[in-house]
UniProtKB/TrEMBL annotation:
Residues 1-27, 45-134 are annotated as: Disordered. SUPFAM superfamilies: WW domain. Residues 21-56 form the WW domain. InterPro entries: WW_dom, WW_dom_sf. It comes from the Eukaryota. This is WW domain-containing protein. Residues 1-24, 56-77, 84-99 have a biased composition (Pro residues). Pfam families: WW (PF00397).
Amino acid sequence: MSQPPPYTPPNGPPRNPDTRPLPPGWIERYDENYKTWFYVNTAENPPRSSWVHPLGPAPPAPPPSGYAPPAGPPPPNDNRGYSPYPPQGPGYYGSPPPQQGGYYGAPQENRGEHSSIKGRKGRKGKLMHDGWTI
């Protein structure tokens, strides 16, 4: 009984990563045993093969054009790290403006001196607020 032929990928060999042009008379071939490319100078008699491109080793790969994630795993989600969402709350862009009136709330009608401070009259008719004479 005969064995089936060796598996050949349906689309042929993978694409050669070294895309530099070859000098005249050179061809490239894929070696299924070593799963790599080699080059043949057909202008020589007999033709000579080489694992190295006729122009020499491939130049170093260019730096990646995109961005890569930072090294290591992401921090635990404890809301202390960087957030991709803009901050929320008073004073930040996109949040409602703070209400008028400052610390004491909405503006009140003017009823004379110390009208915005709530308190009581203490000894000698002086206005008291949280135990302090104003």
